[in-house]
Amino acid sequence: MLNLNNIAKTYQTEKIETIALKNINLNINRGEFISIMGPSGCGKSTLLNIMGLLDEPSDGEVKVNGKSITSYHDKEMASLRNSKIGFIFQSFHLIQDLRVIDNVELPLLYRKISAKERRRLATAALERVGLKARTSHFPSQLSGGQQQRVAIARAIVGKPELLLADEPTGNLDSHMGNEIMQILESLHKDDKTTIVMVTHDDELAKRTERTIRVYDGQLIH
Amino acid sequence: MFKNYLVTAWKVLQRRKFFTFISLFGITITLTVLMILSTVLDNFLNPSGPSKNSDHLLFVDRIKVTSKDGNSNWTSQPGFRFLKDNVLKLKMPEKFSIFTVIEESASYLNGDKVTNHLRLTDSTYWEVLDFNFIEGHPFNKQELESGKKVAVINETTRRNFFGDANAVGKSIEINSQKYQVVGVVRDVSFMEIQAYSDIWLPYTTSSSTSYRSNLIDNWNAILYHSNSNMIKSMQAEYIAMLKNDFVTPDPEEFHKVEGGADTLLDIFAREFTSSYGYDSGAASLISILIGLTISFMLLPSINLINLNISRIMERSSEIGVRKAFGASTTQLVIQFVTENIIITAIGGILGLLLSGLILFQIEQSGLVPGADFRYSWHTFIYGSGLIFLFGLLSGAYPAFKMSKLHPVAALKGGSN
């Protein structure tokens, strides 16, 4: 469902050119659960951002469902992210001013869906992560694990084909981390969601179907 | 969607209470000042009392006289002679009225001296201006011509002299002369400079006749036409008369007269821009007022822009998340501008309330006698327009800057 062909990413400052990624060729198939591993600063997150259409490659081509997105403008990219991709971040990135239910509804605000339907879908997503009782809480009233579950509910509320998780357990203790992993596994198994997860944890990587290793901006096979 | 913006805007307001206070204070004070000034101006330009049909009226309020050698000139109210010889011969106006500006008169009430405002008028004065008589009637042409000592007084003067009783038929002593009251009118706002007074007398009752020979003095004229579209032609006729047919008894001293038959806007513009020639300066006045309004609004707008930009960092995670989950740049701009308009609207409503309160206090204080400073729909629309413009001005740039943040940078904390 996602193809990266000859992807390179360089950051240009006044004098120095930093190569973050080079020569990346990667196919993500529908229904896969993939982990990305590598040392800090090797380009894992950059790779995930390019997969999530949050960042543009300096070179190469990204194809979503066989279609190149090179010529897409801001509005088309936004709409593609909205309909196909869900994000889970290491630091949750919940909007502190909004209640749990409103945070979960956020992706649906950018779709033509009635308020009532948005509420129904958000409640269902929270039920899926076991937080139905917390809809009216604010993020600050929840534990880290609970906040990450809210973030997962937000990522899955729009039923995306691809879920991208950037060290989703990185800020959690092993017990909470395990809970999050179990939710991801069940999403993969029961809902056939395609998941790409960046992690530092070998044990978690072992629980995925395929592990991609990145070193110095390149894939190691 | 809108509810979501509303909630966020409210939360953002609560987050930094001191800065919110500063923003709201700036907006409120600016709008209060602008609303008070515009209400007072609106009160002058769109009167609701006797001069309410001002779009049918022109006023000869000022003339600028130059001597033949060009060495001396005067700007003054016109005199009776000038009006009689020149203005009253105009062809276009359907009605004319001549009258003096207000002066103070002395009366004695139970042994105490009482000062009132007094105006000498003709009888058409009561036809071209629409007074509200609560008792009696105006003096007529016959009474004017025969110099009969009759008076029209306002409600306050009646109360002072006669208490709650009727005044018509009773006599009142003004400047040591007895006058018979023929009519009582409702109080007129001081803002209606041609209509306001406490007492109105036929000009023929003046103790001296020396006024009849003066070219410049303290007189005014009103020109009336039932068709308001004729106003422009009447103004042109007046200027043509000044340029070509001006009659002067003293061609050396009073060689040239400039000025105009003015609308209320022209009168205000002349005073404001000191334009006493053929052009009243109304166009410059409008540009000056627009310029002043904008520069006055600029300061709190810049303050708000700064404040909004400093909030980018605080909200960069939110921007990143919204972008990641599908918000386009346009949607984010709309969100931030809407939020800003909501904040501005709160300041605006406070400004409207505060200016309403201050105007009410001014009205009650009697500082401007008979003033009626209620908001008219003009000022209300003007005020709401200002609020909207304010919100847009101070919201658009920060919104654009915020929405342009790269999602990855925004999620990291908005470093570029």
Largest sheet of chain A: 6 strands, mixed
Please tell me what the overall shape of chain B is. elongated
Largest sheet, strands/sense/barrel of chain B: 7 strands, mixed
Structural class of chain A: alpha/beta
Strand proportion of chain A, as a percent range, falls in 25-35%
Strand content of chain B: 15-25%
Count of DSSP strands of chain B: 14
Poorly predicted tracts of residues of chain B: none
- Described by its quaternary structure, the protein is heterodimer
Our count of helices of chain A gives 7
Task: Note down, in words, how this protein is organized.
The complex is a heterodimer of chains A (221) and B (416). Chain A has 221 residues and is α/β, with parallel strands linked by helices. Chain A has a single domain, classed as Rossmann fold, CATH 3.40.50.300. Chain A has seven helices and ten strands. In chain A, the strands form two sheets. In chain A, strands 6-7-8-3-9-10 form a six-stranded mixed beta sheet, sandwiched between helices. Chain A has a four-stranded antiparallel beta sheet with strand order 2-1-4-5, covered by helices on one side. In chain A, strand 7, helix 6 and strand 8 (194-198) form a beta-alpha-beta unit. In chain A, helix 3 crosses helix 4 (115-128), helix 4 crosses helix 5 and helix 5 (144-156) packs parallel to helix 6 (174-191). Chain A is globular and about 50 Å long. With 416 residues, chain B is an alpha+beta fold. Chain B has two domains: 2-47 and 294-412, no CATH class; 86-230, no CATH class. Helix content of chain B is 49%, strand content 18%. In chain B, strands 5, 6, 7, 8, 9, 10 and 11 form a seven-stranded mixed beta sheet that branches. A four-stranded antiparallel beta sheet of chain B has the order 12-3-2-14. In chain B, strands 1-13-4 form a three-stranded antiparallel beta sheet, with helices on one face. Chain B is elongated, with a radius of gyration of 29 Å. The relative contact order of chain B is 0.17. The model of chain B has no long low-confidence stretch (mean pLDDT 89). The chains are: A alpha/beta (221), B alpha+beta (416). The A-B interface holds A 49, 52, 54-55, 74-75, 78-79, 81-83, 86-87, 89, 93-95, 97-98, 102, 105-107, 109-111, 115, 154, 158 and B 1, 3-4, 7-8, 11-12, 15, 317-318, 320-331, 406-408, 411.
